[in-house]
Design brief:
Number of helices: 4
Mean pLDDT: 95
Order of helices and strands: EEEEEEHEEHEHEHEEE
Radius of gyration: 18 Å
Helix content: 10-25%
Low-confidence stretches: 1-6
Amino acid sequence: MAPNGTSHSSSEIIDLTHALIPGQVPACAGHPCYNASLSFGITKGDFANVHTLTLGTHTGTHIDAPYHFFMDGTTVDRIDLSLLSAAPAVVADLRTKASHERIVWDDLRTAAEEIEARRVRVLLLCTGWSRNWNKPNYSKHPFLDPDAARRLFDLGVRVIGLDTMSPDKITDEEETADVHRIFLGSGGIIVENLTRLEALIDCGWKHITVSLLPLNLAGCDGSPIRAVAWEGVQ
């Protein structure tokens, strides 16, 4: 990535994925904690290095498939990969939003106009909250208004990506799931725990393109992904 304050090359790839480091990956209550341990090591006299991984379908930067909330929903191995591979995207700049502040339709009007003009199906919500990754306040992020989520789907958006733990509000008392149920229930896809979305705003690219591909996990509700972006042509 280019240093802060400099432009990005049109041939550059921007990584939008948090690194998975044992003990440094936030997880929702009850979800598996990430770990990687060396099972075989060359320094121990083994033939090769091999790690054992402990993770969940929602570890780190990941995708939620409709099956996450609906028994008859599409599983992650059956989602439409054309939505996630070399997909044109629009980024909404929401960096002024505060902790637990609602993201309403008026906040998305500029992005919605671009979505409609370019017929884009991927919307990335940049709150800047990835700066709080692995901090106590990471779950206190801004959240998407359910009505705005419904209007985005009606506009043609099929993938919503965020640099937060969830599009829904999370408090110490409860975790709501209204946006999950509306968007996944309509057949959409949610991508959570993205990072460096602000780089996509600051780089000056006109045609942002993303890859958000999951593992081919048969019958599963989600998957960790390696999310990247580059300047495309549209």
